[in-house]
């Protein structure tokens, strides 16, 4: 099958492309990516010469280019990762989140309806459910919960979820949707908590923990997310939402301490800084549906995944050093300078 992957030069999209080309030698992939600050063509270097792979630089909001691509390539499946993905940036500048995440998604699903495809898979997030209280460990996100976004990022993702489901019902678009918890692993942009803390610790820089560090996230190794999407794409039921998560809840402060310990760095690097506005307290996924229907279970335990991830950042310094020494410096100063 021919799969169009949007946002494949980013963190999860690139890991998904590597996974699919390895697991499904018969498939071919076209990656559509605008190469924003978060997209990095060098990440895709290992597959750029693969005859089953083609990279196209384009913005998902550019209707003409998107339609041309559908007309010339006639993809069977679309897996849609492209998005503005960082909560802090959405608080600083919400507009681009609405444009890319909502309007860009609309352009893509319009193209799917116009040209016809077998399935559109929308990669969404658990953040669309809002958050859970810290003192209710019995509560989890289930697919039937109403949407209740907290940040402009999650609101834009929730909007795109609704739009995709409306195209399923109104235009008969074959669509599936997944809502995953926090991912970690290779090639994650260093603005996100885990790679930021690894990169700062390696440089003996302060580790900026928001608030008291007691917010809880439910961490999943990126390859487990990719395997889940592959399963949903092939075997999931059209019009259904699948939560993805591995029951791995951790407090931010405990992860940062673990990173210090793994890298042999002192905890005195930890600096508590002003909290994120609207900061969600706890995310926790109930993955029963994807487990019962599709047999999915995570394969990488956090204790192994975090070691592998730290090892990757140690072994691939040039990948992230190039980023942190570029425009990112300005971003870091703006976000953390007066915090
Ligand atoms: P990322 O920021 O690392 O990558 C986003 C990619 O999209 C980049 O390559 C960027 O160039 C591309 N892009 C952005 N705007 C574009 C546009 N207008 N046209 C074409 N390409 C564009 O993001 P990520 O962390 O890999 O997340 C991928 C998807 O998964 C997102 O939809 C996100 O909401 C979702 N998600 C992420 C996580 C997580 O923990 N990172 C968890 C659940 C869901
Ligand atoms: O839950 C899925 C979501 O996970 C995805 O939809 C988003 O795209 C992805 O960015 C991620 O969102 P979070 O806001 O949870 O991830 P982030 O890495 O930005 O932050 C994780 C936690 O760490 C959060 O509670 C905020 C905190 N944090 C983050 C940064 C960047 C800090 O304490 N210090 C920091 O410098």
Number of DSSP helical runs: 12
Largest sheet: 7 strands, parallel
> Distance between the terminal alpha carbons, to the nearest Å?
49 Å
Structural class: alpha/beta
Over all CA atoms, what is the radius of gyration?
19 Å
* Topology, number of strands: 13
Assign an overall shape: globular
Helix content range: 40-55%
Strand order of the largest sheet: 3-2-1-4-5-6-11
Q: Low-confidence parts lasting 5 or more residues at pLDDT below 50?
A: none
Strand content: 15-25%
Write the element-wise H/E pattern from the N-terminal end onward. EHEEHEHHEHEEHEEEHEEHEHHHH
**Mean pLDDT over the full residue set:** 98
Ligands bound to this protein structure: nicotinamide-adenine-dinucleotide, 2'deoxy-thymidine-5'-diphospho-alpha-D-glucose
Give a structural overview.
By secondary structure, the protein is α/β, with parallel strands linked by helices. Helices cover 43% and strands 16% of the residues. The chain has twelve helices and 13 strands. A seven-stranded parallel sheet has the order 3-2-1-4-5-6-11, with helices on both faces. It is globular, with a radius of gyration of 19 Å. The model has no long low-confidence stretch (mean pLDDT 98). Bound molecules: nicotinamide-adenine-dinucleotide (NAD) and 2'deoxy-thymidine-5'-diphospho-alpha-D-glucose. Residues 6-7, 9-13, 33-36, 38-39, 59-61, 81-85, 100, 104, 123, 125, 157, 180, 182-183, 189 line the site of nicotinamide-adenine-dinucleotide (NAD).
